[in-house]
Amino acid sequence: MVDFSVWDIFRNLLLAARWTVVLSLIAFIGGGLVALLLLVARLSKVKGIGPFVGGYVQLFQGTPLLMQLFLAYFGLALFGVRTSAWVAASMALILYTSAYLTEIWRGCVASIPKGQWEAGQSLALSFREQLQYIVLPQAIKIAIPPTVGFLVQVVKGTALASVIGFIELTKAGTMITNATFKPFVVYSCVALMYFALCFPISLYAKILERKINASRR
User: Contact 27/94 with Cβ under 8 angstroms?
Assistant: First the structure.
C-alpha cells in the first residue's frame, strides 16, 4: 500500500482530469461536425438519405455507449485494424455524440415555422441559401441551450472509456484506489471533480435557456 495524502490524491486526479477534458472536447467538436453534415443531408430530402440518417441516429441512441467502446476497440481488431485506446475512445464518443446532436438540432430546425421555408422559396433562394440565411440563424438560437446541456452527458460519458484502458479521471481513480486502498477518499475526489466540470456547464445551459425564453416574450 502506498501512503498518499489527500492532497497527493487530488493532485494526481487533477492531472488525469485534463485528459477527460481533452477527450470531451474531441467528442463534442468532432461529433458536432459530423452531426451538422448529417443534419444537412437529412434536410436535403435526397432520396434514401433520410432513412439512412434516421437509422444511424437510432443505432447509436439505441445501443449502450459501453458496447460502442468495446466494438471500437476490440471489434476492429477482428478485421486486422489495430487501434489505441485514444483512437477508439475518440471514435466511439464522436459517433455517439453526433447521433444525439443530429436529433437535437433536427428538432430545433423542425420548430421553425414552415412559412419561413416558404418565404425563402418565394424569394427564389436555393436550399443552401434558405438554410444559411433564414432557417439556421433562427434554429441556432433555439439549439444553444440543449447543445450546451448535452456537453454534460459527453463529459460523464468519457468515464466509460476507462474500460478499454484509456486513463482519464475514472481510470486514474481506480488505479490510485488499488495503490492506496482508500476508495472513499479517492472516489469522493473523483466525484467532486466531475461536479466541478459539469455543474458550471449545466448552470450556463439554464441561463441561456432563460435568456432565450425571455427574448421570445
Answer: yes
Indicate whether this model's pTM tops 0.70.
yes
Strands in the chain per DSSP E: none
| Nearest-angstrom CA–CA distance, 201 and 145 | 10
Using the predicted structure, report yes or no on whether residue 29 has a pLDDT greater than 70.
Answer: yes
Q: Is a pLDDT exceeding 70 seen at residue 195? A: yes
Q: 93, exposed or middle or buried, with CB in 10 Å at 0-12, 13-18, 19+?
A: buried
CA 74/CA 82 separation, integer angstroms: 8
Place of cell 488505479: 175
> 75 CB contacts (<8 Å, ≥6 apart)?
none
The pLDDT of residue 25 is 96
